[in-house]
Amino acid sequence: MTADHPSRYEAIAAFHTALFAAAPLDEATAPPDEATAPPDEATAPPDEAAAPPEATVPPTADSGGAGRAWRIAGWGSADLQRVRFEALLRTSGYRGGSVLDWGCGPADLYFFLRDTNLPLQYTGVDLDPRMVELASSRGAPDVSLLPEGRAPEGTYDYVFASGIFQFEDPSDPLYYLQILEQAYDISSRAVAANFLSAERSEHAKAADELYADPSTLARFAAAVTPRWVLDHGYHPQGADFTIALLHERVTGGSGPSSGRS
């Protein structure tokens, strides 16, 4: 790839380098119950869609979720990270079990899932060895490096992919569809992933980021499974959506969504 059009791997590496340079590691590595968002942090409006009854939203979420590591993960705020995590659980009908966190970063999702008090067998993988080291140092179990272009091994009840589709790749513009299909193949209950939405306002878009068309993802989901959920209603600016591909019907209600379930 040229300097003007880096691959998604190059874009991710550069983005992570900037994040590690900007965020204090002593804050990022603090245990979740010891690190809270700064008092002047602007908070997003609360998500009006409730999580399914099986998954109770962790009581620490409003005070910073998984601590200040959300800065290293690249989220705009702890609250925006939280509403995305809630959407993953809600759309997938999460009720506990084995979880693969594909692109785990500092493993904030592990702490969020742990605090639901549902059964959890967690595995995290990431392309960046710095993220793997950080996640392990924070106490996340079973975190390992995933080589570029490789799919994780094993089978899991749920596969979650949060924030891994941030960048476009001119050499492989639909790479995210292959990853979603691979994730579905190694899941037994559901795979859920979030995307920056093509529907967000133009002034809020960056040149190198991937803005997925929800209708494209809906057509893809319908081709993979007759059971799927697309939620475009949780982000305060409507700038984000989550899609879940299901192996079984979600029970207990999946909250506001479009698509079939």
TrEMBL record:
<dbReference type="Pfam" id="PF13649">
    <property type="entry name" value="Methyltransf_25"/>
</dbReference>
<feature type="region of interest" description="Disordered">
    <location>
        <begin position="25"/>
        <end position="65"/>
    </location>
</feature>
<dbReference type="InterPro" id="IPR041698">
    <property type="entry name" value="Methyltransf_25"/>
</dbReference>
<dbReference type="InterPro" id="IPR029063">
    <property type="entry name" value="SAM-dependent_MTases_sf"/>
</dbReference>
<feature type="domain" description="Methyltransferase">
    <location>
        <begin position="99"/>
        <end position="171"/>
    </location>
</feature>
<protein>
    <recommendedName>
        <fullName>Methyltransferase domain-containing protein</fullName>
    </recommendedName>
</protein>
